Amino acid sequence: MAEQTKISVTDVTLRDGMHAVRHQFSVEDVKEIASALDQMGVSHIEATHGDGLGGSSLQYGLGKETEEDFLKAACSVIKNAKPTALLLPGIGTVDDMKRAAEYGIKAIRVATHCTEADISEQHIGEARKMGLETVGFLMMSHMVSPDILVEEAKKMASYGAQTVYIVDSAGAMMMEQVRERISALVGALDSSVEVGFHAHNNLGLSIANSLAAVEEGATRIDCSLAGLGAGAGNTPLEVFAAVTEKRGIRTGLDLYKAMDAADDIVRPKMHRPIQVDRLSLTMGYAGVYSSFLLHAFRAAEMFKVDPRDVLVELGKRKVVGGQEDMIVDVAVELEQKQQALQK
Amino acid sequence: MAEQTKISVTDVTLRDGMHAVRHQFSVEDVKEIASALDQMGVSHIEATHGDGLGGSSLQYGLGKETEEDFLKAACSVIKNAKPTALLLPGIGTVDDMKRAAEYGIKAIRVATHCTEADISEQHIGEARKMGLETVGFLMMSHMVSPDILVEEAKKMASYGAQTVYIVDSAGAMMMEQVRERISALVGALDSSVEVGFHAHNNLGLSIANSLAAVEEGATRIDCSLAGLGAGAGNTPLEVFAAVTEKRGIRTGLDLYKAMDAADDIVRPKMHRPIQVDRLSLTMGYAGVYSSFLLHAFRAAEMFKVDPRDVLVELGKRKVVGGQEDMIVDVAVELEQKQQALQK
């Protein structure tokens, strides 16, 4: 790594952070946070429901504001950074994306499970046609090998993605896993395609993993103020600003402004502390979706087994979203094993 | 690193964690925490005032309990681990150490500033004569080069220390700094002397730095439940248990018991969340003693400069404890610079 590596930081306080406040940021909150972010040197400010465009629903959690009010509020105060929205095909539509662009969104990040890049084709293609900057987002990237991720990333790039992210949705990656995945993508993709990394802190490694990603050639890193995000949160922006400065990596971030916004604006708005507790640590350790937690706890209670054992087993079996039936099956099997041991 | 590296974990919840609760753990708290720790596979349980034996005082903060009651309570419940006490020469005395041994303490960690190992000679020597296990603790180890640390560590070993620790008191080390310091000590000390590492999380790197230390040959790692400790806290034991298990490092820790004790016993006793906030991040970024914080904030207020600039400048000048006069000098200089710029 050259001494003066230059990267850019995308802030996700107003998107991934929405999970941590049950999507309840108000128009005033959004304006306050987006303005502060816009003054501290981030290149992109992502502001969307936690589950992306169209996410505000009974299934994914109703937002406090309509999507229109929320996005317009964010875009109204962002002068320096690019207002950005997340879209998960299946939840958000091309129409949602068009409206978002009308509200002032300039970049779209299209997110799929790490083996399902093909479902991003239409959205990435349409976004490019609309003149939006496009980013592909490979979620749960810890579940598959670097080779598979390369194939999926190439698909996204071929659809028009200008950047592809390795996304550690469950905060389950050790540094080596980050290194091998980022370096594989950097080596395999056309040099015009940037590689990004999105961490979660469930194993206490968000800062170290983000640094490792930069060392392997990632030029786009996701952060959030005070780490506000799902599970144990994301890479805390103000901490990343400090360590990159110490390491001689240029981010353009203003360290003091980031510290002040984290402590004075974001922490007072938190519903719960962002920490590596039993739930978030188990999620990172097992490498499973956060949406499995509640189901696993219910099933574990029913069959009197430890919910952590259920989650660890689900992680081993690489169960993905849509296979929630497996959760009860696993709990039953564990109960039977437990009973056999007691005999 | 061999796949099955074996290390041992010293818990400091009841010593470094005492700073975070202003030394107010009761006899009941100590018994509850020490018992839980004793069941989860740590090799040593350090239980002392935050500033070590003799630390309970107006200057360093009065403990809720007398040293006698506190140590006896801890030792009364510890059956598997070694009850351990910290001692800073100048605060604690040889007599304090003798009394601690009478109360049941089996290991003494003698801590000095990283360039002052010579003041540990008497205490380490006496501890060995008393049949106690002895550990040397080189505080603020980020401030000097690996070569100097090697010289200081050799002194401690020559006095009889069976283990020497690199201590990142300010949480200021990047992973490379940990690697070069630990590998220097491992290479230079007699193979009968173990090398340990004590992290703080001020830069969000406690887990990564502790793993790096193990990779370089450290066999003793300090942790605390939920990271309870000064500043941004120590390496969280339960998280370290999870990452070492994922990495194939044998610690003997019981992950679920550690998670449960962190969430159910320690977090409810916290006075404040253990987090990387403006204060603790500045401390790690600047690389200064936590005891400077209050002085720096007072001086900064008086001269209307940013206290963080004062701390950063103190870090650059490598100011150490006892040189607190420098804090006002630095604030005055920064004020003058500021005024000159405004003209």
Strand tally of chain A is: 8
Report on the biggest sheet of chain A: 8 strands, parallel, barrel
Helix content of chain A: 40-55%
Quickly count the helices of chain A: 14
Largest interface: A-B, 36 and 36 residues
Arithmetic mean of pLDDT of chain A:
95
As an assembly, this protein is homodimer
CATH topology of the largest domain in chain A: TIM Barrel
The first-level CATH class of the largest domain in chain A is given as: Alpha Beta
Approximately what portion of the residues of chain A adopt beta-strand conformation? 5-15%
Topology, element by element:
The structure is a homodimer of 343-residue chains.
Chain A: E1 8-14, H1 16-20, H2 27-38, E2 44-47, H3 67-77, E3 82-87, H4 94-103, E4 107-113, H5 121-129, E5 133-139, H6 146-159, E6 163-167, H7 175-188, E7 194-198, H8 206-215, E8 220-223, H9 237-247, H10 255-266, H11 278-286, H12 292-303, H13 307-316, H14 325-342
Parallel strand pairs in A: 1-2, 1-8, 2-3, 3-4, 4-5, 5-6, 6-7, 7-8
Helix pairs in contact in A: 2-3, 2-10, 6-7, 7-8, 9-10, 11-13, 12-13, 12-14, 13-14
